[in-house]
Amino acid sequence: MDEFEIIRRYFERAVSDESIRVGIGDDGAVLRPDPNRDLVTVIDTLVSDVHFPHSLPPADIGYRSVAVNLSDIAAMAGRPRWMVLALTLSDSDPLWLASFSSGLFAAAEEFDLALVGGDTTRGQETAISIQVLGDVEVDKVLTRSGAKAGDSIYVTGTPGDASAGLAALQSGAPRNRDVDYIINRFARPTARVPIGQAIAEHASAAIDLSDGLFTDIEKLLTASAVSGSIELSELPLSSQLIRLMDEDDALRLALGGGDDYELCFTSAAGAEVFQDIADQHEVLITCIGRVNEGSESKNALLCTRNGAEYEYHHDGYRHFH
Ligand code: ADP
Ligand code: MG
C-alpha cells in the first residue's frame, strides 16, 4: 500500500464545512478563518516508546494524539477547528492504520475538528505530529501570564490517574476495574475544551497539565511573575487511585506524574462561579491554593500538607537535560 492509498483509505473523509476551501488532496489546505476571531495554533509530537508504549492499542494512540493537542487549545480558551497530521510509520499495517484513524477521528468528531491535510512518511519509529488550529474571540485568549496576587488556584479533574495508568501499562499490572480506569485516563485523556471556554471570562491565567501539576503551576506562576502555594490535603485524588496505592504515593503522582491533560487556572472570582461551571459540565473543579506576591523564577511554588511545609523534589519530564 503506497502513501496515496493510505491517505485515501484512512484519512480522507468527506467534510462539508464552508471554512475549508481546499482540503486533503491538493498541495496545501486553504482555510477561511472567521474575520472576527483570533487564530490559535498548537502542535504536539508523539513518538513511540517516548510518549506512549508501542503496545498501546492504535485507536488509543490516535485518540491521544488529538486529545493532547486539544488540551493546549483548551488552556487558551480556544475553539478547535482544523488539524494537519504528519505521520511517520515503519510499515503500513492496514489493521494498525484502521484502528489508529478510528481513534483519531473519534477525538476529532467530539470537538468538530476537521483533518485538512498532512504528510505521510516512512521511518524507523512511529511518530505522530499533529498541528491544531483553533480560534478565540478577539482579545479573549487565556494565557499563562495573567495571574495576580490574591487569586485562587484551581484544578480540574483528578491529577495523578494518568501517570499511574502509564505505570500500570508498563508493569503489566493485573487488570481490575480501578486499573482499567487509570489506564484509560492515560490512553484517552479528556480534553477540557468546554471548560476552557467556560472559565475564560473569569480566569486570569491557565495552563494545561502535561508535565506534572507542580511543574506546570510553577510555569504559570513564573510566566505571571508571582509566587503561590498549594495545600496538598486539598488535592482531589480519585477514589480509584486511593484504592490502588497509599496516600503518599498518590500525592506524589498527582504532583509530579504528568500526562493528566487537566486544566489549572487562577482567578479572583468567587468559588461559586466555578462550582456552577463544574456542575454544568459534570467536571470536578477544586480550589487547591493561592497566588502570592512576586517571586524569583526559582521556587515560585510552595507546598504545604495540613499547613506544614512539604518539600517537593521533581522537575517533571524533560526530553533534554
Ligand atoms: P505533496 O507531495 O504535494 O506534499 P502529498 O502527496 O504528500 O503532497 O499529499 C497529498 C495530499 O494528502 C495533501 O493534500 C496532504 O495534505 C494530504 N495528506 C498527506 N498525508 C496525510 C495524512 N497523514 N493525513 C491527512 N492528509 C494527508
Ligand atoms: Mg506538493
How would you explain this protein's 3D organization?
The protein is an alpha+beta fold and 321 residues long. Helix content is 35%, strand content 26%. It is built from ten helices and 13 strands. A seven-stranded mixed beta sheet has the order 8-10-7-11-9-12-13, with helices on both faces. A four-stranded mixed beta sheet has the order 3-6-4-5. A two-stranded antiparallel sheet has the order 1-2. Helix 3 (94-110) links the parallel strand 4 (79-89) and strand 5. The chain is globular and about 60 Å long. It starts with a helix and ends in an 11-residue tail after the last strand. The mean pLDDT is 95. Residues 7, 11, 24-27, 85, 87, 115, 117-120 line the site of adenosine-5'-diphosphate. Adenosine-5'-diphosphate binds next to helix 1, strand 4 and strand 5.
Give the structure's gist in a few sentences.
The longest helix has 18 residues. This protein is α+β, with helices and mostly antiparallel strands and 321 residues long. The protein contains ten helices and 13 strands.
Termini separation (Å)?
A: 40 Å
Q: Which radius of gyration do the C-alpha atoms yield?
A: 20 Å
Count of helical stretches: 10
Count the beta strands. Answer: 13
Uncertain runs with pLDDT below 50, 5 residues or more? none
Derived structural class = alpha+beta
> How much helix is in the residues?
25-40%
Strand content: 25-35%
The biggest sheet, with number of strands, parallel, antiparallel or mixed sense and barrel status, is: 7 strands, mixed
Mean pLDDT rating:
95
Strand order of the main beta sheet, please?
Answer: 8-10-7-11-9-12-13
N to C succession of SSEs: HEEEHEHEEEHHHEHEHHEHEEE
Bound molecules: adenosine-5'-diphosphate, magnesium ion
Shape category: globular
